[in-house]
Amino acid sequence: MQSAGAREPASEGADARNAQGVQVVLPGGSGVQHNYFAGRRPVSWPHLVGVIPPRADGYQHRAVFTVLADNFRVRRVPVQVIAGLGGVGKTQLAAELARRMRVEAALDLVVWVSVLSRAGVVSAYAQAATDLVLGPDSQDPDQAAVRFLSWLGSTGKSWLVVLDDVASAADMRALWPPEHPNGHTIVTTRRRDAELLAGRELVGVAEFTEREAIDYLVGKLPAGLTDDVGGVAADLGRLPLALGHAAAYMRDQELTCTAYRRRFADRRRRLSGLFPEESELFDHAAKTVATTWSLSVEAADRVAPTGVARPLLELASVLDSNGMPETLFATEAALGYAARGPAALNEDDARDGLRALHRFHLVAHDAGLVRVHALVQRAVREELPEQRLAAVAVSAADALACLWPDVDVDARFAQLLRANGVTLYRVVADQLWANASVAHPVLSRLVRGFGDAAMLSDAIAWARDIGDAAHRVLGAGHRDTMAFRNQLAMWLGDAGQVDEAIAELERLVAEVAATLGPDDPNTLDARQNLGYQRGHAGDPAAAASELAEVLVDCQRVLGPDDWRSLNLADQLAFWLGKSGDAAGAVALLRETLPRVVRTCGPEHRTTLSVRGNLAWWVAESGQVSEGVAALREVVADTVRVLGAEHRDVSVLRNNLAYWQGRSGDIAGAVAALEELLLERLRVFGPDHRDSHATRNGLAELYLESGDPAAAIAHLEVVLASRRQVFGDDHSETWDTRYRLACARGDLGETVQAVEELAAVLDARERLLGADHRETDRTRQSLAHWRAR
């Protein structure tokens, strides 16, 4: 490497030893001093060896630079390692620091080494030795490098050595500049090996901040192209190198940010078509982002266990960039993909492969999570042949399905799995459906995951999306297509769109029975869902009647101890009780409980549901203290099994507080429900049926405690929400209007109570019939307030 940079005049007071030679102590402990004269040409100070990369056009000041400069000026840190993903701007930071400190700290010597290999470092050191120590007569490069390092350790000159892009700690063995009061070393690297970092100050460099990225693009682009710089920054993950390439491309093509984002979002376009050609790069970038990372991937794949890092990164390329569970890569599906042959891999191999990727900043592996920059993911995917991408998609889906429990116990882990499922489907849906004869199980689990978390709008949207794809690929009569339609109807009903759910289920029941037969499990599932939705539509008697018929058929086809039969019995008991037959509900649940314990186990979710349902109807049948005691036990057991944040726990807590109030502890019940209401509003929002249920329970308790105004405040919120969700003529809307009318009567507003109850009675006679128990209750309440 040739020395570069203008020769500057020697400064006054230069080291007098320069004119007489330099004393150098060779390493090895001999203590022998050597003088080097040999016709060496005079050295001008300050001196530069190597070429400091010029400042990039549009150079953006970054907060991390302040850290680097303070370490240099104030803390006097001898060695700083600037580490980060390829493309985050490590070299530009080091170059800016070298330029600034050369002037500000009046450095006598700056040596810039582009570390391509160990031989490159030796060559750069030998050049420095030629300039400073040996003179123009060349000697053995290794010996010259040793003499240069010795000179650094003994000189009175102030110096900075920058080792740019160190690819391996092995390349630097015995070549590290010595720690010296007058010396500083800056290292840039994509690696974070323990050997590289030991005893050195690590300064991690991430992407631009949002503000830095926006300012950078505004500075790079003509004003007419900057209509959405924030969107471009977000799309490119605020990666400096990618932003520079994108800005060049936009300027060349005269594209606005909005137009560029449209092209970037088009997955048919490759990154190579969204950045300039390598020969056209500017800002002194030597490589494209894809080339930058491919070198790191190749190096990581050579780390033991050899050949594991690349396939693990390929799996990570189709999952959520913000976080994947480490355990996903240790599943049988992931290990099988990584092995790509008969050689068996284990959990330790997967972890070692992830650590290899981590060492090269291709992933961040920390606290059980794996994160990858979204552009790295896209670059990796685009290098995969179609057949291999399909194998990646299926393997990642298999791994995710294996990791996903049947019941989401840990809310945070469930959120992590949902996010990965969404990303998987968004980026490789075509590969998951390609040549498929069935829908991958992870797709149904994804939809159910949103529904179980009460994220009903998401559950509905994904059920529609995936159901439409199943219809298109598998056909209308395929059982998986019909199963997605059944899921869609279930979540529509839970979201309050009961009429639409019932209409869809009536069509589905007819179609699935005709296609698959009346005894097919899909047919039984659709019939069960239809009965359940009729109950939510305000007709519990019809729900109980339909579910009783389905239960007979289910027990006949699947057996009385099948989990679906047991779950159906639990559901039938609920609607029996709601229709007024609490004793029948208790009897059915007492019969079902031993079977569900025997079949599913004492801690299964269905077992806990049957116990909670039984406790409620025992209390409803008049044995309140027994019901409360049973509810306390099942709440404790459900918290232990499913966790305190599970929705089943929330339902049981609501039920326990209700009966606690009915047993006489109104103050304790109100406190429990007020606390639960805050949690439900935070988790489910104000329009969810669970939030309504808690407000209704509070209203009842406030009425019993003689505070109708507080009851009315809650009921008015519920009424406004139900009108918005269900409409004015829905049974649940009329139920809330009934409760609100009675509360107004208790507050003394009897005229308004009578007018409202008369309207509710007309509606219930029309919707439920003149003999329905809710109609009769309304009639009695109206007579009561008329008499008042």
TrEMBL record:
<dbReference type="InterPro" id="IPR011990">
    <property type="entry name" value="TPR-like_helical_dom_sf"/>
</dbReference>
<dbReference type="InterPro" id="IPR027417">
    <property type="entry name" value="P-loop_NTPase"/>
</dbReference>
<dbReference type="Pfam" id="PF13374">
    <property type="entry name" value="TPR_10"/>
</dbReference>
<protein>
    <submittedName>
        <fullName>FxSxx-COOH system tetratricopeptide repeat protein</fullName>
    </submittedName>
</protein>
<dbReference type="Pfam" id="PF13424">
    <property type="entry name" value="TPR_12"/>
</dbReference>
<dbReference type="InterPro" id="IPR053137">
    <property type="entry name" value="NLR-like"/>
</dbReference>
<feature type="domain" description="NB-ARC">
    <location>
        <begin position="80"/>
        <end position="193"/>
    </location>
</feature>
<dbReference type="Pfam" id="PF00931">
    <property type="entry name" value="NB-ARC"/>
</dbReference>
<dbReference type="InterPro" id="IPR002182">
    <property type="entry name" value="NB-ARC"/>
</dbReference>
